[in-house]
Every structure is written in structure tokens, then in C-alpha cells.
Amino acid sequence: MEQDLLEIIDAAIESRGAITLERPEMPEPELLCIPIKRSENLLLAHVFYDFSPDGYSIIRLDDVYDVLRDGGEMFFERIIKAEGVYKDLAPPEEIDLASWKTALGSMKGRRDYCILEIDDEEDFLIGKLMEVSDWDFTFWYFDAAGKWDDELDVIDYDDLISVSFGDRYTNTIIKYIPLP
User: Fold this and answer.
1) 137, 104 Cβ separation under 8 angstroms
2) 55-72 pLDDT tens trace
3) What domains does the chain contain, in order, with CATH numbers?
4) Mean pLDDT across the chain, nearest whole number?
5) What single-letter DSSP state applies at residue 13?
6) Nearest to 143 by CA among 100, 178, 99
7) What is the pTM of this model?
8) CA gap 68, 71 in Å, rounded
9) In the prediction, which pLDDT does 1 show?
10) 47 burial type by CB count under 10 A (0-12 exposed, 13-18 middle, 19+ buried)
């Protein structure tokens, strides 16, 4: 990632400012967020939808094409401050962003239910983080009808694009899925 884009992200982390991440190859090419922290390769951010916080995402910085911090993001900040949303923002428990292995290891047992974006997958996977090992992790997902897959998927860290958790979609649907 270009140094000037990292500087914009770092400044937004420091000031708790809003940015838009452009990821043209992703299903959602623009992500409005307030970045929380980053490592060399990963970024943890508060995601927003219609002026409301909607969970967190950990994304690969290599997928970010551009970072916007202009009038639109500043206007957004003004709105969420006036609406009282800004003061209630809190980061999740500590997540180690040194690698996908450490990030998922930090989540295991506390944030097992999540959404994954995987290379070569048209859609996302939603389910439960089962095991984290040195080279890969095990994930159990369910389909749109709420049926758990018959087998666990073993996913290489290199294939992982993003992990989202604490969002309304996941928090709502998991209440109606029969637990494994």
C-alpha cells in the first residue's frame, strides 16, 4: 500500500476520523468506517451503515486501492457527533493484528460468529470460527436457509480477504439458527 494512503489511515486512527476505503475488486467496493488500529497488513475498523455503527471489519490493506478523507467523511462525522453516536463508539476487545492467525486467535471464543470474504468466492460465508492453527483455520458456515453445512471448511489464511463481526446481520440471524 502506498505510504500516503497509510498516512491518511494513521491520521484517522489518531483523530478517530471517518474515511472511505475503496476496494474495487470487492463485493462492496466502498467501505465507510472509522479505523481503530492497523498493522503492516491488516486494518481493524468500525463500519457504518446509514449513520449507525454496524460492527467491525478486519481487512487486508493490500486490497485497498484508495482512501478518501474529504468533505463527505467530515460531514458524516458532524452528523454522528450531533446524533450522539460518536461518543458511544468503543473498540472491541483487544485483537492482535500481526497476522490473520493472531487476529483470528484473538477472536476465538469471544467472536466466533462472523462473516468471511474469501478469495475466489462470489459471496460471503457466515458461520462459526471453530479452530485456528498455524497455516489455516476451520470454519463452519450455514446457508441462506439457516442449515449448517455437513462438513467444516479448512481455509488458508492467504485466501482470507476480510472478517466482519458484531454487525446487525450476524447478531440477528444467529439468534434464529439452530446452534451446532
Assistant:
1) yes
2) 999 999 999 999 999 999
3) 3-88 (2.30.30.100), 100-176 (2.30.30.100)
4) 93
5) H
6) 178
7) 0.93
8) 9
9) 74
10) buried
